[in-house]
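Reviewer comment 2.1 asked that we show a complete input and output for one of the modelled complexes. We chose the flavin mononucleotide case, as it is the one discussed in the main text.
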Amino acid sequence: MRFLTAGESHGPALTAILEGCPAGLALSPSLIDAQLARRQKGYGRGARQRIESDHVEILSGVRRGETLGSPIALLIRNRDHKAWSDTMAAEPREGAADRALTLPRPGHADLPGALKYDRRDARDILERASARETAARVAAGAVARALLAECGVAVASCVLGIGPAFLERSVRWEECHDLDEDMPIPDEETRRRALAAIQEASARGDTLGGRALVMARGVPPGLGSHVHWDRRLDARLAFHFMSIPSAKAVEVGDGVASSARPGAVSHDAIAYDGERGFRRATNRAGGLEGGITNGEDVRVTAYFKPLATLMKPLPSVDLATKVPGLAQIERSDVCAVPAAAVIGEAAMALALAEALTEKFGGDSMRELLRNAEAFRRQVREY
Ligand SMILES: Cc1cc2nc3c(=O)[nH]c(=O)nc-3n(C[C@H](O)[C@H](O)[C@H](O)COP(=O)(O)O)c2cc1C
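Response of the prediction step:
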C-alpha cells in the first residue's frame, strides 16, 4: 500500500491517491469526514479551521460503499480558494502575483525552498509546505484505519503536553478515549495548565509546540522485519511521523527514558501462558523489538516544535532587495498539537496498514483476513 498527495494550501483542492488497498473494504465519505473533522479541532487553531469544514469526495476505487482494489482517489476542496483564484491561477497572468511573500519566515520552508527551486516569491514554496496538506494524509489514513479495524487493530492518541505543561507519567490505552477533542490531555491539571500556556503565548504574539502519544492495539506479532534496514517497522513509523510538519523528534516506547536507565529496567521480561501465548507484563519497547511487532501495543510519542509564524516576527532579509526586515506574517495558528495528534493517528494507521498488507496480501479483504487469522493461529499454537 502506498499513497501520494497533491495540492496547494489555497489552490482549488487537495488530493490523495492511495494504491494497494484490498477490494471489499467497506468505505464511505462520512467515515473519512469524521477524521477530517477531528483534524480541524484543537485549542489554539486560527481562523482557517472555521472556513474549511472539510469534506471528502471519493473519485475512484470505491463503488457502492466497497473498495474495488483499484487506486482510491480522494479530493478535498479548499473552501477559501474563491478568494485566492487569481493569486493561485494555473493559467499565465500578466504582472506579478499579489500576496507575494518575500520576507521568509525562519523555521518554515520559505527560504531553503526558494533557494532550492529558484523561486522569487516564497508563496510558491509555502503553499505546498503548509500543513494544509495533512488533510489529504488524514483522508488516506482514514482508509488505512478502516482496513486495520477489520483486522482487529484500533488506533488512539492523546496530547501529553503543550510547551512547558506536560505529563511526566506514562499514559495507558484506556485513558485515550472520550477526551476533550480541543485539548485531549488525559489529566485535568495538565490540561488546565496547557490551555493557560496557549492563552499566554497568544497574548505575547508567540506560539507553542508539544508532544502527543499515538498507540495501536490488536497489532499482530510479526509486522516489519529485522532482516534489512528499510524493513524495520520502527524506522518506517519514524519516517511517517517525522514527515508531519513541525515534528522534530519521534520516540518508540520508553526510548527517551530508557537512554538514561540501566538495561535491567529497560526491557520487557517474557512470560508464557497456555491460553494467551507469549506475553509481557511491561511494554517499555512500545510493541517493537528488532523492527518487528511483538503483539503488545505499538506506542509512538511525537514531539512538535512551536509554530514558526510569529505575530511578533523574527528578523529576516528580503529575497529581492537583501534589505533586513521582519519576517512576513501569514494567517496562523498559536498551537496545533491536538491536530498533530490526529495526523499522528493517520501516520500510525498508514504505516501499519502498509506492513499488514505486505505480510498478509492485499488483493481482497477476504484473503487478507484469512491470512491474518491463520497467522495469528500459528502464533498461538507455536
Ligand atoms: C496541523 C498543523 C497545523 C500547522 N499550522 C501552522 C500554522 O498555522 N502556522 C505555522 O507557522 N506553522 C504551522 N504548522 C507547522 C508548519 O507547517 C511547519 O513547521 C513548517 O512547514 C516547517 O516544517 P518543519 O517544522 O517540519 O521543518 C502546522 C503544523 C501542523 C501539523
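The mean pLDDT is 96. We note this here for comparison with the apo prediction described in Section 3.2.
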